[in-house]
Amino acid sequence: MIKGNKKIAVAMSGGVDSSVSALLLKNQGYNVIGLTGIMHDSEDADAFIEKSRHVCEVIGIEHYAVDLRAEFKDKVVSYFEHTYRQGKTPNPCAVCNKNIKWGSLRKYAVEKLDAQYLATGHYARILNDNGFYKLVKVEDAKKEQLYMLFELEQEDLKYTIFPLSSYKKVEVREIAKSNNLPCAESPESQDVCFIKPPTTTQKYLEDVLEAKPGDIIDIRTDKVVGKHYGIHNFTIGQRKGIRVSADIPLYVISIDAENSKVIIGPKESAYKKEFRVEDVNWQHNISNIQDYRVLVKVRYNSPAVTATITANENGNVIVQADEPVFSITPGQAAVFYHIDEEYLIGGGWITYTD
Questions:
Q1: Is the sign of the CA dihedral 256, 259, 261, 263 positive or negative?
Q2: Among residues of the chain, what percentage have pLDDT more than 90?
Q3: Mean pLDDT of the 325-348 span
């Protein structure tokens, strides 16, 4: 772990993972404080603060709240909306991790609270390999969250602690119950924290984006087969909600944002072997990214597949998967793992290759 009586700020949401993280560190004798970011205006946001404060009282640690609403709107909400305007599918959690949790929140912890380390409830493990910090897979494969942490850099990893690295989710809940933490039965957090039920993502986008109707095109004939009322209602690989009659199931193959067109086709048309990745963050320097073998994940809940990557003159990466991959989605992250040891080596943002 870490040496000395260092102060550790735990990013707390009031949920079971961050709460048990704080408890474990406190029981290990560290100087622990709870820190909750105020991300947006809502009753739920106020509830998160109260839940986190209550948990900290039970554990016996101090709790602080910091107003990050301006930063969250600028870095996460605006990015979310802009990405949909481009006909892409955003990944707000990964962006929030880098810019808010390991950005504004960590900065406040260091500069205002004199904390040396940031701890979170992510299911990930950091291995110090002779001064290089590796994000390594954990035992609970269903909860492993390396994919969402690909934008962290060596300096971030050096001062980060993941207390749950050796635990499974069921064990974490048992720890919460046995220690009478009020979050023991808290539900799993949702992906888009600033959109609350009954509001859906589509309804939210309808309220903030200007609707631009357009054509739905069948890739097999290049003919118009339907109309839509906004590209934000579609994502690559989508089947339901297309509202086009056909003799076979049809899927969204691509989105032409400039011309407001949605291209659909049979499932086999939604598979690709080659795609491009931009704005790559390398957690480890690779001397020669030419025909480099990796494992790659193209979405959080998909299995990693073997592939070959090559960097071009612009620093972007061309990925050649060994087998066709379904629903390569622009706006989502492609995350690269070492092909043998399966630690994270970097990742970036999928873009259109056509």
A1: negative
A2: 77
A3: 93
